[in-house]
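Contributing new records

If you add data, match the layout below exactly. Sequence lines come first and carry their own label; structure lines follow with theirs. Keep one chain per record. Anything else will be rejected by the validation script.
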Amino acid sequence: MTYCVGIRLNAGLVFLSDSRTNAGVDAISTFRKMIVYEKPGDRFMVLMSAGNLSISQSVREILQVEKLPNGDEEPITIWNAKSMFDATRVLGAAVRRVYEQDGPSLKAAGIDFNCSMIFGGQIGGEAMRLFLVYSAGNFIEATRETCFFQIGESKYGKPILDRVLTPHTPLDEAAKCALVSMDSTLKSNLSVGLPLDLLVYEAGQLKSDRIAVLDEHNPYFQMIHTTWGQRLREVFESIDDPQWDGAEADHPLLASSERFEPMRKIASPDEKII
């Protein structure tokens, strides 16, 4: 299992991935899920992957040389694509090529062809774009209404992203939000693990040096982990307990409902549920 999140904002892009893979409780390994393709001044792209590790590694290898037919013109690759849409088409073709090569053998072994990828970046002359690519090689694009994608173990880290992120969120605030999201996932799922890879890209730069690896000794991530847990407990303790004795309260629990009756108890075999 893994957890990766990609965020598209007005100010730029944020990518965060863990590095744990496992085939059981006693077979845990560390493999990076993020890879950067950069030609400064021309294009900047980031790929993160989740799912079957052998499939993901094969896709990344083939992506380097995958070509899409382009009529009488030069075939399209990720290195000459004129748009992120075309670059993502190349990625989809790489996924389908791996399926053609390995899909039948995996199926014969009872293994599903399982991979999902977040692919985003910017090509000169075009706005930043962020895509979620599925196992079939098809994909969807992030919008202003849905400005982030998650792959892997997403449920624990999603609530903070939903509550905080908008297209106007500053890059550093979004990076902090992504790290809180990852910390929540690490807390609840042992199949997601350190170290983490964090990358922040500023719109229009076509390169990025804001790349960090965070392990259990990283001071900033230690602060995130400690502070977030402490503040959550403080907020929880500041919420009133429910009052069951009918005592006066600012927010009474036993308030009557205009639409629904209280639940009834069944006291004998002769009573009907409805």
